[in-house]
Specification:
Helix content: 10-25%
Number of strands: 28
Strand content: 35-45%
Shape: globular
Strand order of the largest sheet: 1-28-27-26
Radius of gyration: 24 Å
Distance between the termini: 41 Å
Number of helices: 4
């Protein structure tokens, strides 16, 4: 007896009903894409990303002055940041959600830096004063240093953070939208170097992990959670430990399996943490994402990694997009890692970032053999992880749709 398409659909719906209690699980996969370079350069270094997915990077070397920053709007082609009038070098530092970029600028290789803000939307720049920048928040406040003083730059005036005056040295790395920031201080209560958390004119020294020495704060989110690294020596060999700090408690994030050293560099508002993990004896190093208490290797989840060697991660936004740099076919280049949403395959070849009934219908047609599917669609819709699209994936996608 010939089976009609209607009978096939009814059969699949029956499988959905029977298998409805199955548990959906799928590991997040990533697509890597190069961000290009500033015009006239052959390499680039990743800098930052905002929550719209717009990125900043720089080409050249900021120390010898031969450098230029650029930006990419949602992964589009690289656009150079214009030089200030009379200046010939710049370096992008960070970007906020209003498309304001903090920029370090130099007239020549022999002059000091001046901090400015470049507005992508209006194509205008505002000089804030002499110094260097490290981060910018959504209020347009730039965290940096001026004359070796911790400074908050803004268009309404610059403020030296006098609370750090008693330290031998202090550096702020990351600033959140509450005005809180983190970094490290030298000559604190422990007499050494340790991470700090600053908010409302108050400095909190974070201490360090058990059996560790110096600590450094590297990333902070709007929940005032801090991540970074702490150092420990074992038989005269330096090891790093990745830490997470919240409300006065510092926790060790551990390492990937088989590794013995790690460092965290950024955290988003969902608590996703990125960093590096390695094994000292072999020099092996890789990169991780840590979420829901689990640390996973990023390289293992990149679907198009051929030709790429990752060498550093910089930032993660609230959509889970990650910016970093590595080498593509031997050339240093900034990259963007874009997560593939499990189950998101519709519209065909142009997924919209959502899982809805359109994805279910498209998957059903693919399972019935009514249309072919791409490798990306296989990765996103293979929810039972058996390397093919079948009725089990339909069951699990339906569960995704009805799960709050």
């Amino acid at each position: 007896m010939k089976t009609t398409q209607c009978e096939k659909y009814c059969f699949l719906i029956s499988l959905v009903i029977i298998g409805f209690t199955s548990v959906a699980h799928a590991t997040t996969q990533y697509r890597i894409s190069g961000l290009g370079t500033a015009q006239g350069f052959v390499s680039s270094t990743a800098i930052g990303i905002n929550n719209q997915g717009n990125t900043v990077a720089s080409s050249g070397d900021p120390f010898d002055g031969l450098s230029r920053g650029f930006y990419n709007l949602e992964g589009s082609v690289a656009t150079d940041i214009p030089f200030l009038p009379g200046y010939f070098y710049n370096w992008a530092v960070a970007i906020n959600d209003n498309n304001l970029i903090a920029v370090d600028n130099r007239v020549t290789v022999d002059t000091g830096y001046d901090v400015s803000i470049y507005n992508i939307d209006t194509n205008t720049s505002t000089v804030l004063g002499s110094g260097i920048a490290n981060d910018i928040n959504n209020s347009g406040i730039v965290l940096g240093r001026s004359s070796n003083d911790m400074t908050l730059f803004s268009t309404s005036g610059n403020t030296v953070v006098n609370e750090f005056g008693s330290y031998a040295f202090a550096e702020g790395y990351a600033l959140n939208n509450n005005g809180a920031f983190t970094g490290f201080v030298k000559g604190g209560t422990s007499g050494g170097t340790q991470a700090f958390f600053y908010i409302n004119n108050t400095i909190t020294e974070l201490g360090t992990l058990p059996n560790a020495g110096r600590s450094f704060g590297r990333g902070i989110n709007d929940l005032n959670q801090v991540v970074g690294s702490a150092e420990t020596y074992i038989v005269n060999t330096l090891y790093n430990k990745a830490f997470f700090w919240e409300n006065g408690v510092m926790s060790d994030l551990g390492t990937l399996v088989g590794h013995d050293t790690a460092a965290a560099v950024d955290i988003n508002n969902l608590g996703q943490i990125i960093g590096s993990s390695g094994k000292k004896s072999s020099g092996q190093s890789t990169f991780f994402i840590h979420e829901n208490g689990v640390m996973m290797s990023l390289e293992d989840q990149i679907i198009n990694s051929a030709g790429w060697y990752l060498s550093g991660l910089k930032a993660i936004n609230d959509a889970g997009l990650i910016i970093g740099h590595g080498h593509y076919n031997g050339q240093k280049q900034a990259f963007l890692l874009t997560p593939l949403v499990s189950g998101d395959i519709a519209p065909h070849t142009a997924p919209d970032g959502l899982v809805n009934v359109g994805d279910l219908l498209l998957l059903t047609r693919m399972v019935l053999g009514l249309m072919t599917y791409t490798n990306d669609e296989l990765i996103s819709a293979d929810l039972n992880n058996n390397a093919t699209l079948d009725s089990g994936d339909i069951v699990l996608m339906l569960q995704l749709l009805v799960t709050p």
